[in-house]
Amino acid sequence: MKILALDTTSGACSVALYSDGQTTERFVQAERDYTRRLLPMVDEVLADVGLTLKELDAFAVSRGPGSFTGLRIAISCVQGLAFSVDRPVVPVSSLAALALGARRAHPEWKDAPIVSMLDARMQQVYWGVYSVDSPNCSQLPEAVQNPEKVVMSLKETEWSRPIYGAGPGWHYEALSGAQVNGVDLDIMIHARDIAQLAVPLWQEGTAVIAEELEPAYLRNEVTWQKRQKIRSK
């Protein structure tokens, strides 16, 4: 199985190829120039393993939530690549990928639930909770909320084991009231984790054709306003 994954969700640009259990990745921490960086990184990753686009089984990309612009860049790029070689795309949660990256960086967290969090601006965060047993499915519905509501939701939930936090969204002071055993704000989304999460989703048949790929913004009203501004230009 060969899956090429791309991500420009939040603060970084990365491309990774999962090929029969082995993963090759290019990762650059950058806030801009995603469009200029992505395709050369795709070429580099494919060259590393001696493959072409036609030899891939599928593509994978973060479906969100995350930066409006970042999501659109990666999704548009994947759509173009997938369409050119008639391959499907596996959409993966950016929050789930963040949690998997945290688990990879912190083996001492073992099988503990991880609360992934991205800054949604406007004093809100995108968040979800992921277990080692179901890494693609949040134990609480993925949501965009203010930090106080997140703290309340975590307190109202009975956890059978310690929980940890990961991601830059944890910087809000109000989240200090959350009952977590540790937080890593520096965890970023990697395409290698998107690729790994895409494997079981591909096996379950959740891939879509390029034209049907849609981002999950969570904050629909803000997305609609941005779309209206773009259309009016």
TrEMBL record:
An example Gene Ontology molecular-function term: tRNA N(6)-L-threonylcarbamoyladenine synthase activity
What InterPro entries does this protein's entry cite?
ATPase_NBD, Gcp-like_dom, T6A_TsaB
Q: Which UniProt keywords apply?
A: Acyltransferase, Transferase
Q: What is this protein called?
A: tRNA threonylcarbamoyladenosine biosynthesis protein TsaB
Q: Which NCBIfam families match?
A: T6A_YeaZ
Q: What family is it from?
A: Belongs to the KAE1 / TsaD family. TsaB subfamily.
Origin species, per record, is Microbulbifer epialgicus
Q: Which gene encodes it?
A: tsaB
What region holds the Gcp-like domain? 30-151
Organism lineage reads as: Bacteria, Pseudomonadati, Pseudomonadota, Gammaproteobacteria, Cellvibrionales
